[in-house]
């Protein structure tokens, strides 16, 4: 195990003046580059007086946070080099993209991945032009930014990402700059509790740097206005020891920041060394740096008679009318020249050696650390063969198993096989055992650094199951873990995964862009296991019944998203085997945890999952006929059971009707081939769903999703979808499907109503189905359970 970082030099004793001057030069250069990206289209070194045609036609970007981010970047360079630290930084105020780009251009890592943006005048001109410009790069920290694992377009997730990156990385320091606006978000507020799960023996360290520049877009920030003693009490209550840096005089702030970083890193080294050599007596109290500098520091103090520096007006573009207003143009030139670029760059635009004196080399640079390009470090996950875990299926529908419990055995072995390499974690909001995955606890415990009571179970300081009642934190941990080159699974109740809708948006966008960057290596997929799903939340009721996460995900980039609805235990194993091995996807797997009929043996399950959608001839009654009279289709475990039951009723009461049964595992198969890589061609789709035959589709979620996925297909006018339509309550399992017209009796009625010629000759059968639904309502109100003909049903073929 790597040792804790050690101290070199004279921390706390102050830096020599020449080192402070070098740090200041680097900081001034970064500020110059950040401002230049926002404003300049040409004349990057100010070799001639600024003219309007040197200015971009649209001024975009965020100046206000950039000087503070540059300060952090400059000082992290020094301690990384002094201490030979393996470190990355998560930039919470990610809209300060110009600062992070400036830092990576100065350390040379930007030019290494983008050779046309060379570290000279021509490259500086390209760096400036491309920023927030058509065909260029975003204004936020993004996948295009070397050294980043954090999309800065949406605030709130930085600290969770930082802790995810530190997990199982004992030699890594993860600095995390938290903006004071970002600190007001719910996810960030919850993330302060992540230190209760950080193991100082097996994990790395997170150093939060709370940057209080006082303002958001148009308002003051809460934490910046707290009296310092109250803020300290808050941070200490979160388990941190604050170290303060404040000021607006650069050299004084440089000295204070250098001292603060040395003090923080010495504390971290001591905590880690003590834990690793002497054992852990109690949860460590980690340092946090509180950095107070003015918003828009070193920029225009006043514009058009109004204060700017140190106010909310510095948030984005402090001089908005540079092309049209000569005074603004003069102010911009004075501002840029105040950094003395001639001292920072030589005549060819190359950074002068003295400002790079404190910059580390090679992979130690923040822009080049391989942990921030996690695919470089990723190893294949040792997924065992499925034969050991598959359930035997001699005939369809004769036995029942809990699919997620079966999966739990597989995950236990994966956890066991990664015990030494520690690169697999399972996260979830207090639901691992509830979701029948408790076999994991045979291989590892639940991460926990607080006290342990005699009644607690499976808590472990080094555990690799992560449970906290915050879906935001689970998502952020896993994203940080995956983006730094590891593997994982997020298990969640289906209805409440919606809490991370916005977070998964950002991760999908990250993956989409990363796939287009040759230097970004593929990372392990973000895998969701959604269980305790809508159809078996009859006991918890309406609040727990929402299958809409699938709809949300399928709106996103088709090259990234995948959705699977395995109908039984063996198909779940096959799907899990695939998604755990996959790269650069967001995989959503919806599977039940309650006893479910076993339909396919392992070989059949593998073949069916490989197809993604296919016929189950054993359940239908085509018997070699040219085309069926009707197609009964299903996606999801409960819809599959109802379709099979409906097919059995039709076989018994209407044996001359040729029924085709189709099961869909991969929802994206319904899309056209040109819209999704897994989509079917029209020829393939029509072979499965004949265009002139009625299709009764029983779907796990909201029925209009199936219509949306297949609206361009020829069969669409004949497609009738049953699914969840917000008819939920606390009731019996079968009543849930009855309430939503997804039950077997309603499906048989749909077949009769929509198959030409059946409506007249099958009137008696239809009436029998309606009577069964009526009998069901009376039965559950008297007995509180489902009718025996439903509760004791099994497929007889």
Automatic annotation (TrEMBL):
Its cofactor is thiamine diphosphate. Gene3D superfamilies: 3.40.50.920, 3.40.50.970. CDD domains: TPP_PK. Its EC number is 4.1.2.-. The keyword Transmembrane helix does not apply. It holds the Pfam family XFP_N. SUPFAM superfamilies: Thiamin diphosphate-binding fold (THDP-binding) (SSF52518). The keyword Nucleus does not apply. It is an enzyme of class 4 (lyase). InterPro entries: Phosphoketolase, THDP-binding, Transketo_C/PFOR_II, Xul5P/Fru6P_PKetolase, Xul5P/Fru6P_PKetolase_C, Xul5P/Fru6P_PKetolase_CS, Xul5P/Fru6P_PKetolase_N, Xul5P/Fru6P_PKetolase_ThDP_BS. Residues 16-376 form the Xylulose 5-phosphate/Fructose 6-phosphate phosphoketolase N-terminal domain. Residues 593-795 form the Xylulose 5-phosphate/Fructose 6-phosphate phosphoketolase C-terminal domain. Belongs to the XFP family. This is Probable phosphoketolase. The lineage of its organism: Bacteria, Bacillati, Actinomycetota, Actinomycetes, Kitasatosporales.
């Amino acid at each position: 195990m790597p040792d804790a970082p050690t101290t070199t030099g004279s921390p706390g004793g102050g830096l020599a003046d020449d080192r402070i001057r070098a740090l200041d030069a680097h900081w001034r250069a970064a500020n110059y580059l950040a401002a230049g990206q926002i404003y300049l289209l040409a004349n990057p070194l100010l070799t001639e007086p600024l003219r309007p045609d040197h200015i971009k036609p649209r001024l975009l970007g965020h100046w206000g946070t950039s000087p503070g981010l540059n300060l952090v970047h400059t000082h992290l360079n020094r301690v990384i080099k002094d201490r030979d630290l393996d470190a990355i930084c998560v930039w919470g105020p990610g809209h300060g993209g110009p600062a992070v780009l400036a830092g990576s251009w100065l350390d040379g890592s930007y030019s290494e991945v983008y050779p046309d943006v060379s570290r000279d005048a021509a490259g500086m001109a390209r760096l400036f032009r491309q920023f927030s410009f058509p065909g260029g790069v975003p204004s936020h920290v993004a996948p295009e930014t070397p050294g980043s694992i954090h999309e800065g377009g949406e605030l709130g997730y930085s600290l969770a990402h930082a802790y995810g990156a530190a997990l199982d990385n004992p030699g890594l320091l993860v600095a995390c700059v938290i903006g004071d606006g970002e600190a007001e978000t719910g996810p960030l507020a919850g993330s302060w509790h992540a230190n209760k799960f950080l193991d100082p023996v097996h994990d790395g360290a997170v150093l939060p740097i709370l940057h209080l520049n006082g303002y958001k877009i148009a308002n003051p920030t809460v934490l910046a206005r707290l009296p310092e003693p109250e803020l300290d009490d808050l941070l200490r209550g979160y388990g941190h020891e604050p170290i303060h840096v404040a000021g607006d005089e650069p050299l004084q702030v440089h000295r204070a920041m250098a001292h603060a970083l040395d003090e923080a890193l010495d504390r971290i080294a001591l905590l880690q060394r003590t834990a690793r050599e002497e054992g852990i007596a109690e949860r460590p109290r980690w340092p946090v740096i509180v950095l107070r500098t003015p918003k828009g520091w070193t920029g225009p103090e006043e514009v058009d008679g109004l204060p700017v520096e140190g106010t909310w007006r510095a948030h984005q573009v402090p001089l908005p009318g540079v092309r049209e207003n000569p005074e603004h143009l003069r102010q911009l030139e004075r501002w840029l020249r105040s950094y003395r670029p001639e001292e920072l760059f030589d005549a060819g635009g190359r950074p002068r050696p003295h400002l790079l004196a404190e910059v580390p080399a090679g992979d130690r640079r923040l822009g080049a650390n391989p942990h921030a390009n996690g695919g470089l470090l990723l190893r294949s996950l040792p997924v065992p063969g499925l034969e050991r875990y598959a359930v035997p299926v001699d005939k369809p529908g004769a036995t029942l198993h809990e699919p997620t419990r079966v999966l739990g055995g597989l995950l236990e072995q994966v956890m066991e096989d990664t015990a030494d390499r520690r690169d697999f974690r399972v996260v979830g909001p207090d639901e691992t055992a509830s979701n029948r995955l408790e076999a994991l606890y045979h291989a590892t415990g639940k991460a926990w650094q607080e006290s342990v009571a005699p009644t607690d179970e499976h808590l472990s300081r080094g555990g690799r199951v992560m449970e906290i009642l915050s879906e935001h934190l689970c998502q952020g941990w896993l994203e940080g873990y995956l983006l730094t080159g590891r593997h994982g699974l997020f298990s969640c109740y289906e209805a409440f995964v919606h809490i991370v809708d916005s977070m998964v948006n950002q991760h999908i966008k990250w993956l989409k862009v990363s796939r287009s960057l040759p230097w970004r290596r593929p990372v392990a997929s973000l895998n969701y296991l959604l269980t305790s799903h809508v159809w078996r939340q009859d006991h918890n009721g309406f609040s727990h019944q929402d299958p809409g996460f699938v709809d949300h995900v399928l709106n996103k980039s088709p090259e990234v998203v995948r959705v699977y609805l395995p109908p039984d235990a063996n198909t779940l194993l096959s799907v899990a085997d695939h998604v755990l091995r996959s790269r650069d996807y967001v995989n959503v797997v919806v599977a039940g945890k309650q006893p479910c009929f076993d339909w396919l043996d392992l070989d059949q399950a593998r073949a069916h999952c490989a197809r993604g959608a296919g016929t189950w001839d054993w359940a239908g009654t085509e018997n070699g006929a040219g085309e069926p009279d009707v197609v009964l289709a299903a996606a999801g475990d409960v819809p599959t059971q109802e379709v099979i039951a409906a097919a059995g009723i039709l076989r018994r009461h209407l044996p001359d009707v040729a029924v085709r049964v189709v099961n869909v595992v991969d929802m994206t198969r319904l899309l056209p081939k040109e819209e999704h890589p897994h989509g079917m061609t029209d020829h393939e789709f029509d072979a499965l769903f004949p265009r002139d035959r009625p299709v009764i589709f029983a779907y796990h979620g909201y029925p209009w999703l199936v219509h949306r996925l297949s609206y361009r297909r020829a069969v669409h006018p004949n497609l009738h979808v049953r699914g969840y339509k917000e008819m939920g309550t606390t009731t019996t399992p079968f009543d849930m499907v009855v309430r939503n017209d997804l039950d077997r009796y309603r499906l048989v009625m749909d077949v009769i109503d929509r198959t030409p010629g059946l409506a007249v000759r099958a009137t008696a059968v239809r009436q029998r189905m309606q009577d069964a639904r009526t009998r069901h309502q009376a039965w559950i109100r008297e007995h509180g359970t489902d009718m025996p003909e439903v509760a004791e049903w099994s497929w007889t073929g």
